[in-house]
Specification:
There is one protein chain. The protein is mostly helical and about 90 residues long. About 65% of the residues lie in helices and about 0% in strands. The chain has helices at about 10-25, 40-55, 60-85. Helix 1 packs antiparallel against helix 2, helix 1 (about 10-25) packs across helix 3 and helix 2 crosses helix 3 (about 60-85).
């Protein structure tokens, strides 16, 4: 299966912002009230909003691209976490 088409939906700026927000939600003490299971949903919604801002228009492609980048930030966090903690 060729997944090259996903690179069209990738927004690096949105991914980095969502990665930072997700990391802050997970590690800042006063945000402990937010359960970890909600972080992917939060970064997907944030990514959709930032995707529209980044694209300068509100279209389905901008929303989907932003949400995809937001969810990719969760995967990137897990990738780095497992890579760093590997013994």
């Amino acid at each position: 299966m060729n997944l090259d088409f996903l690179s069209e939906f990738y927004m690096p700026v949105v991914l980095l912002i969502c990665l930072m927000v997700g990391y802050c939600i997970k590690h800042i003490k006063w945000l402990d009230a937010i359960a970890n299971e909600y972080i992917p949903t939060i970064v997907a919604i944030l990514g959709a909003i930032l995707g529209c801002i980044y694209a300068g228009e509100t279209t389905l492609v901008a929303i989907a691209s932003g949400a995809f980048s937001g969810l990719a930030s969760t995967g990137a966090h897990q990738l780095f976490k497992q890579w760093i903690n590997k013994e």
